[in-house]
Design brief:
By secondary structure, this protein is of the alpha/beta class. It is built from eleven helices and twelve strands.
């Protein structure tokens, strides 16, 4: 019997999630592709592994047995991969990292260029995901590591199966149409009557922004909801409203936008998440170190003082 690791991974996700669609989403395949591969797995085994019950797929006793062994097999493969990497004369590995726009443009180029010079046998591929989805993708094995976020007023719920390395601490600023606010510093209260461009409430950034307003006893007028900081700043540059932007987001700042320090201090911590089973993987630790070094070079290291971009008035942290 020849069992495909890819099919065993699909079986494991089906066992965890209960539907073909959920398993496919976790693994970034189409539901049709997963269904076809699982059907092939049944043929490989020569016995029924699934029973359909409405929209859900119920594993048979044999299916559950194979899914439990799949967990052990896939964990063993991960450990073997780590051992082979460490046993070589030079570290060689292929890793997939979850990113979003600001970290992909602000941190990765310097980090990966340095890594290519110092450890050319480590290849890092990236996959863009919403920040809210990256930790789950690491936990499920779809990614080897991923950037994750915590806001000072909205820390994320952490998964016991994951570890994280703090990479950077970013300050949040107001981004307003050029000349709209004649000062270098502003409070949320002073901006509350402006039309706002914010990330949706379901996102970590959007939720943290709304919590900041709620804590100040205010409710902003949100005219536009967009996911990415570059999009929000482009809309602000066109005079459609004001928005919030982080330090790394400033690298994508368009003309026509003023960046103002917020007296309502809001920060976010950027970390890299990876599975506890890979916490000692040499290649992964080298990637983490390269990205952390790139952040420190920009003044964003976890131990550094919070940066202030050129032309923005520094605001001391709240006591």
């Amino acid at each position: 019997m020849d069992l495909s690791l890819a099919r065993l991974r699909m079986l494991r996700e089906l066992h965890r999630r209960g539907t073909i669609t959920a398993a496919a989403t976790a693994l970034h395949y189409t539901a049709s592709a997963v269904s076809q591969q699982l059907a092939q797995l049944e043929r490989d085994v020569g016995s029924r592994l699934f029973e359909r019950r409405g929209r859900r797929v119920q594993l048979t006793d044999l299916g559950v047995l194979l899914a439990e062994h799949a967990e052990e097999i896939l964990d063993a493969v991960e450990r073997a991969t780590q051992a082979l990497e460490e046993a070589g004369e030079s570290v060689s590995a292929k890793l997939t990292a979850g990113v979003w726009a600001s970290v992909a443009s602000g941190l990765l180029p310097d980090a990966l260029n340095t890594l290519a010079r110092t450890h050319p046998n480590i290849l890092v591929r990236t996959r863009e995901l919403a920040p809210e989805a990256t930790a789950a993708a690491v936990r499920d094995g779809a990614l080897d590591l991923s950037f994750v976020l915590d806001y000072s007023n909205y820390p994320m719920t952490w998964d016991a199966g994951l570890e994280r390395a703090v990479i950077a601490v970013e300050r949040i600023y107001a981004a307003v149409p050029a000349g709209a606010v004649p000062s270098a510093s502003v409070s949320l209260a002073e901006l509350v009557d402006h039309p706002w461009i914010l990330a949706p409430a379901r996102s970590h950034f959007g939720h943290a922004a709304r919590l900041a307003f709620q804590s100040a006893g205010m409710s902003p007028r949100i005219d536009h909801e967009v996911e990415e900081q570059p999009t929000a700043m482009a809309m602000a540059a066109s005079g459609l409203g004001v928005t919030l932007v982080s330090d790394l987001g400033l690298a994508l700042r368009p003309p026509g936008v003023d960046i103002l320090a917020l007296s309502d201090v809001l920060t976010r911590t950027v970390s890299l998440a990876y599975r506890t089973t890979t916490a000692r993987r040499a290649a992964l630790l080298l990637v983490v170190d390269a990205i952390r070094t790139a952040a420190a070079a920009k003044g964003l290291g976890a131990d550094a003082a919070l940066p202030t971009p050129t032309g923005v008035q520094a605001v001391p942290p709240a006591p």
